[in-house]
Queue: 2 jobs
Job 1
Amino acid sequence: MKINVKKIKEKARLPYRATVGSAGADLFACLESSVLLKAGNIEIIPTGIAVEIPEGYAGFVFPRSSLSSKYGISLANCVGVIDSDYRGEVGIPVINHKDTDFIINDGDRIAQLIIMPVDNAEYAESDIITDTVRGTGGFGSTGR
């Protein structure tokens, strides 16, 4: 599948897979100057790109495991979703979970993008839904 990417900023970098087996393509910070991400704070980091996601698909933005496990830097929204009809700049809302500040520099790999199919289900109101073994059991109802 080919995804068209528009550079909104000249120095922006296209998403890039580090290895052939990489599920996600790295997204890069596109900054005029470094960003100090203070402990506990959230900042939206620009990528300088817009992507053209085909209809029937969405772009899912996941944290980079190395940033999360080593430095406590993750996505503020856990997983970002880029809808197929969005054509603006991709921004990455990052959060610093540690108690020490973290610097994000221009060109840093800050997240990863995975394109996946989505089902555009239609929702209909109903007075009855089928029962299951689990039924209405909520969080933790199936055990630990």
Job 2
Amino acid sequence: MFENFGKHIADIADVVCSYPLFFLLIGGGLYLFISSGAVSIRRLPASIRELRSKQGHGQHGQISSTQALLSVVAATIGLGNIAGVAIALVVGGPGAIFWMWVSALVGMATKYHEGALAVMYKGKDDQGNPRGGTMHIIEQGLGRKWTPLARFFAIAGMFGTLCIMNANQLTEAFMTTFTTPESVEASSFLSAVGSAVSLSNAQAYRLLFGCAVAVVVSLVIFGGIKRIANVASVLVPFMVGVYFLMVLYIILTNLHAVPSVFARIFSEAFNLQAGFGAFAGIAIIGARRAALVNDAGIGTATIMHGSSRNNNPVREGLVAMLGPAIDSGLVCTLTAVAILLCGNIDVEGVKGLEVAMRAFGNAIPGGTYMLMFIVICFALSSMFSYSYYGTSCATYLFGARRGRWFTYFFVATLVIFAIVPLEAAVGMCDLFYALMAIPTMISVILLSGRVRKATREFFTNRPKR
């Protein structure tokens, strides 16, 4: 049953997430990049200065701009940065990484607009609490007649922000690292659990692990946005730092092969020998995986940045655009280099975390277990932030009191998605992200002129440094 379901979902996702998603995210992002005067390049120094500056503390918000950024990064730096990159390499080859970089560059321009509009059009729930998100941007920025589009985003957002791939791949990684198929099949305890719920031993293992993950995540997310932001502020710098040191070790011990790795990325990104179709396929694969990694144009970042205490749209936009630079630019590159140096991407089927685990295991003594630790941190950090995204969408649709019930639904799905096949998990993630991107990119493009006006006024009136 799961296998047939996964195939159907993957087929639908392949249609929706190929050329339509590519032109929407990359084409729309390129328009925002050009119309904003290459904001992601020209304003990068200002963006870094803004992150280090003492940020304003307005009355309408719950967290600081830095906490908002780290919470967004906590969500985007997840298993997509490891498993997603591995999938892109397996399916599209090294050239797909180049298109992830392109997506990051234009994604920074998109995130700038998302962050600015999230503050420009903050909303409130029915209890008067400040809320942000694409749904509020559409309703306030474009007008009440656009409410159906805002509701469309909120509905897609409730399902798109479920941690489908994170729960699935974390379970897979833990299972393959600490057990063998023989030990699982021989376990009388798993047999008893499986018999009770009509599952195989392997599925029973996944079910139990999913329950354990749900318990850990519950300890954080039921504390609300402030607890999520506090955890992210500590966890994100730590996990990125440890991961950087691991990849740095791999690079230094294989320094002679690094130039050839980057040569492969660039040469295969523009490889037309197999025809234009193959070239377009590589570009689409890179953009599709990047959408899962940096969320630019998807709309999730607007929810978190809309909760910021910052009352200046441009300042928030400058902070927001650092997100894709960190996840798609830095972390994904680290993963790609490590896998291409020490891994094997010539495997059959859709393989993700398994490829990365083997690469790190080949390169570092105990690397498999070290990466497993990072994987747990990455996966959990995503789950913390994504629970708030989904709850915000549910709150917009059903009100604050009833919207809180979504948190319980979110926790329950962590158990369910621990069992589904990888193909189904990837397909569902891609499909819901594409549905969220439609209203987000429409609203951002239509309102981009107001962001440009605010940007000109901000930098014209800003004291020279």
